[in-house]
Design brief:
Helices cover 22% and strands 27% of the residues. By secondary structure, it is α+β, with helices and mostly antiparallel strands. The chain has 3 domains: 80 residues, RNA-binding S4 domain (Structural Genomics Hypothetical 15.5 Kd Protein In mrcA-pckA Intergenic Region, Chain A), CATH 3.10.290.10; 95 residues, 2-Layer Sandwich (Pseudouridine synthase); 140 residues, Pseudouridine synthase. Strands 6, 7, 8, 9, 10, 11, 14, 15, 16 and 17 form a 10-stranded mixed beta sheet that branches. It has a 5-stranded antiparallel beta sheet with strand order 1-2-5-3-4, with helices on one face. Strands 12-13 form a two-stranded antiparallel sheet. A hairpin with an 8-residue loop joins strand 8 and strand 9. Helix 1 crosses helix 2. It starts with a strand and ends with a helix. 37% of the residues are buried.
């Protein structure tokens, strides 16, 4: 069995372990749900069957039913929610900005500066610590393990909306929507410079850097990295910066940030991708002081996960949510609008 590491996974897949199983020669035919359950040490047959029903399990690249019987040479690929120890997460009474909630899921607004999941250097104060406390103090629901189901994430310094599954059934259904790229997500970004066109599509592979694996690099030749597609459109031109919307067709780590750098328009004040330097404008000291003041007001990359749309996993209703722009971005946008007026 080969486990695919999460280092190369898209953002929405980072809370799942991906597996590939090969059926050995001489293996007698066996139902696929039993075959996978026998191979996996920390899962249940019902969880495997739920994954199969949602189309996450494939045999030789094709979706199968739970009664499919494996044959010698079959290659089985699937994803399972990562197993975590209870000690991994400390419940903390951190206020949550909940925008929607029912028995099956909730939509929360994550502020910039909050890490989604505990990791090295950020073991407390994360969204998961807050969710753990919230779920521990909820009445037990049928099918609810008592822990939040993270389906996707956004960067620490990106603000915006996230959907959280509250049951195994909801988790599996939402996971499939992300895998199928049917989730509708719109981001708002401020980028350096003014693109020549009013809209465009960036279809360039993205992969982790060799020297620094925290940085994602664009691979225009397509031989390295993984497929990544971003559709962007100009909202407003502000002389030396531009406000754009970005719609993700895929969900790679740092996709918008890496793609915008690739086309020569890094996000405003994005230190990891060169946006924390003056990329457009004059060399006058007043302009430099103005930019530094903008950086102080917005001490992060100018990126906001504005909207989130998906099919409710139980009711099959189409749900759509929008989160207002955070004050730091609004303040800097207003400063640029005034700057453009003054310069005219």
């Amino acid at each position: 069995m080969t486990e695919i590491t999460n280092d190369e996974l898209p953002e929405e897949e980072s809370y799942f372990d991906h597996y590939e199983l090969s059926v050995d020669p001489g293996q007698r035919p066996i139902r696929i749900d039993k075959f996978i359950t026998d191979k996996m040490a920390y899962t249940t047959r019902s969880k495997v069957q739920s994954s199969i029903a949602s189309g996450i399990v494939k045999v030789n690249g094709e979706i199968v039913k739970a009664n499919y019987k494996t044959k010698a040479g079959d290659v089985i690929t699937f994803a399972m929610e990562k197993t975590r120890k209870e000690s991994d997460v400390v419940a903390e009474n951190i206020p949550l900005d909940i925008r929607y909630e029912d028995d099956h899921l909730m939509v929360v607004y994550k502020p910039a500066g909050m890490v989604v999941h505990p990791a090295h250097g950020n073991w407390t104060g994360t969204l998961v610590n807050a969710l753990a406390y919230y779920f521990d103090n909820l009445p037990e629901l049928p099918g609810n393990s008592g822990r939040p189901g993270l389906v996707h994430r956004i960067d620490k310094d990106t603000s915006g909306l996230l959907v959280i599954a509250k049951s195994e059934r909801a988790m599996t259904h939402l996971a499939k929507q992300f895998f199928d790229h049917s989730i509708a997500r719109t981001y708002v970004a401020m980028i350096w410079g003014e693109p020549e066109a009013d809209e465009g599509t960036i279809n360039v592979n993205i992969g982790r850097g060799i020297k620094d694996r925290k940085v994602m690099l664009a691979y225009p030749e397509g031989d390295d990295g993984k497929s990544a597609i971003t559709h962007w459109k100009v909202i407003k031109r502000l002389r030396y910066v531009t406000l754009v919307t970005c719609v993700l067709e895929t969900g790679r780590t740092h996709q918008i940030r890496a793609h915008m750098k690739h086309i020569g328009h890094p996000l405003f004040n994005d230190a990891m991708y060169g946006g924390d330097q003056i990329r457009k404008g004059t060399q006058f000291s007043k302009y430099k002081a103005y930019i530094q003041n903008c950086f102080q007001i917005l001490p992060r990359q100018a990126l906001h996960a504005k909207s989130l749309g998906f099919i409710h996993p139980i009711t099959e209703e189409e749900l759509y949510f929008e989160g207002e722009m955070p004050q730091d971005m609004l303040s800097v946008i207003e400063k640029w609008e005034n700057y453009v007026k003054f310069e005219k």
